[in-house]
Design a protein that fits this description.
4-stranded antiparallel β-sheet, 178 residues, alpha+beta, 5 helices, 8-stranded antiparallel β-sheet
Length: 178
Amino acid sequence: MKRTLIALVAILALAAAPAAYAQETRWVNVNVSETSSGTNVEVHLPLDLVLTVLRNVDVENFHGGQVDLELDDADINWPEIMKAVKDAPDGKFVTVTSNEANVNVRKEGGTLYVDVEEKSEDMAKVHVTMPMAMMDALTPGEGNTIDVAALLSSFDTLPDGELVRVTSNDANVRVWIE
């Protein structure tokens, strides 16, 4: 699996290399380092290339840039929930303190922050930054699918910065746009 991922990243990187992209091109960056194997994967791809690939992938539960959440039995009004989150005032929404983990969810300055700190096992720490501009694209559509391509398209309107950081005893992951 790791070899397949590394090969896919290499192919995408080679495909992007000869293209001449203007300064205003947005870039999606992913860095994954696994300490136990000494593996480090760095991905630095133009957003347009990522979107083209996503829209042309057709595999189980992922078709044309959309992922099926497999919530067929759920009756959830996603647009109303997402609108409520977008329209909610700034503040602390969730604080959980336990022997297993600390969880904090807050909205501040038009951005939703989710922080999770595991206290056992891998001692994982997760920090997610979600600007409200991403909320419309994150809203599941017909058949409980999320249009990942639309979500990534929303990156075009975001300021440069980190979206996800995961640190643990075994691996670190960082996703950012520029």
